[in-house]
Amino acid sequence: METVPGRARVYVAGVTVCACVLVLPSAPSPASLPSPGVGPSAWAVALLAVLYAAGELPARRRLAGTFYPVLLAGAFLLPPPAAALVAVPGALLSHGPRRGVLLRRVWRAAQLVVAVWAAARTHGALGGRGAVAAPDFPWALAPAGAAVLVFCLVLAVLDTGVLALAERAPVARTWRAVFAHSLAPVAVHGLAGLMMAVLWRSPYGPVAALLVLLPMYVSWWVFAQYHRERAAHRATIRALVQAVDIKDGYTRGHSERVGRASMMIARELGLDEDRVEVLRLAGILHDVGKLGVPTRLLRKDGPLTPEERRVIELHPEYGHEITRGISFLGEARAAILHHHERLDGSGYPYGLSGTQIPECARVVAVADAFDAMTSTRTYRRARPVAAAVQELRRCAGAQFDPTMVEALIRALAREGWHPAVTAEEPEREPAVPRPRRASRSRGRPGVHR
């Protein structure tokens, strides 16, 4: 939302006005406040608001999520206007990107107010407050489940609206993705919120209810650690790929597309998602060993000498060494080392043949060749996908594994392929002469005719 179109700002303003209208009735006079634990007393609203803010601040600083159990407990305990008010302080004080932070905070507060109000209204209409005060399981789960579902639906609808207006995202597809992604986490948070509400109304009081939050905070911290680790992995991969792109500008974008094609092949083979991710990383990093090859060889204008060719053929081993300390790559390192091996044993660096070549390397080899043929470079134009597929079939059994070739062909028939131009603009590197069309591809390892 750094550059938000006017129509999206109007939408945010409308939702904010609606939220203000829903919250206004929640300011009762001191004389009308019921006794603690029975109604929307000021101390209950304040305590829940503080608890929500305490969970929201660290969560929003590290994750793109939020801490819902306190909000849903408020929806189960308080009337709709008072429950909606619980979300305001935490949302307005939450951390976020520096640009557009005020608009983001206002939007987050407004959508949570509307969602919590709708959930509390649904819960009350189904007799949920009586079920919380005198719990009769499993019947108490029905109004709570309906309230959680409404809460998730409202958030999904509001998020879909702002995405459709700000980014012109397709409405139906965006709504399904947002709702499916958020339903399971919100359901888990709803159960914790219901436990908190039942204990709050029990003879043990709010102190017992707070005990529910301890395992939730611990699990949220573990979740945050996992996301930080994933972010560090992505940063490592991104830095290596950018370094290769800077060194060999003629293949800019090639790594990401090889990763995508490797992932398509892996899914077509029915591999589990963990291995699919490993193969995606293998495709992205397959040429990282070029960092160890002299730049003058990668950009040489003319055919390579046998000695220069042998130096470039060392890049799989360089890549294997560069990634030695990156433990999360797993078998991707084997693909980096062996993606230039051929089934007939004429490849490099070790001349492996047949099933001696690791499966992941056979996948990346097909993906690498396909993208090399279908990408436009400064020294040649891209081949049509049909021509590239025909060439892969012709080389299957000698250079490529036929199983991997057919898997890619089936995936392409179902999903299609839309490669981008990867040639580096000549004017960006004035010191490097533009290669002649025929000379650059001659004698270069890894170029598939």
UniProtKB/TrEMBL annotation:
<feature type="domain" description="HD">
    <location>
        <begin position="251"/>
        <end position="373"/>
    </location>
</feature>
<feature type="transmembrane region" description="Helical">
    <location>
        <begin position="206"/>
        <end position="224"/>
    </location>
</feature>
<dbReference type="InterPro" id="IPR006674">
    <property type="entry name" value="HD_domain"/>
</dbReference>
<feature type="transmembrane region" description="Helical">
    <location>
        <begin position="37"/>
        <end position="55"/>
    </location>
</feature>
<keyword id="KW-0812">Transmembrane</keyword>
<feature type="compositionally biased region" description="Basic residues">
    <location>
        <begin position="434"/>
        <end position="449"/>
    </location>
</feature>
<dbReference type="InterPro" id="IPR003607">
    <property type="entry name" value="HD/PDEase_dom"/>
</dbReference>
<feature type="transmembrane region" description="Helical">
    <location>
        <begin position="144"/>
        <end position="166"/>
    </location>
</feature>
<dbReference type="Pfam" id="PF13487">
    <property type="entry name" value="HD_5"/>
</dbReference>
<feature type="transmembrane region" description="Helical">
    <location>
        <begin position="178"/>
        <end position="200"/>
    </location>
</feature>
<keyword id="KW-0378">Hydrolase</keyword>
<dbReference type="GO" id="GO:0016787">
    <property type="term" value="F:hydrolase activity"/>
</dbReference>
<protein>
    <submittedName>
        <fullName>HD-GYP domain-containing protein</fullName>
        <ecNumber>3.1.4.-</ecNumber>
    </submittedName>
</protein>
<keyword id="KW-0472">Membrane</keyword>
<dbReference type="InterPro" id="IPR006675">
    <property type="entry name" value="HDIG_dom"/>
</dbReference>
<dbReference type="InterPro" id="IPR037522">
    <property type="entry name" value="HD_GYP_dom"/>
</dbReference>
<feature type="region of interest" description="Disordered">
    <location>
        <begin position="420"/>
        <end position="449"/>
    </location>
</feature>
<keyword id="KW-1133">Transmembrane helix</keyword>
<feature type="transmembrane region" description="Helical">
    <location>
        <begin position="6"/>
        <end position="25"/>
    </location>
</feature>
<dbReference type="InterPro" id="IPR052020">
    <property type="entry name" value="Cyclic_di-GMP/3'3'-cGAMP_PDE"/>
</dbReference>
<feature type="transmembrane region" description="Helical">
    <location>
        <begin position="67"/>
        <end position="94"/>
    </location>
</feature>
<feature type="domain" description="HD-GYP">
    <location>
        <begin position="229"/>
        <end position="424"/>
    </location>
</feature>
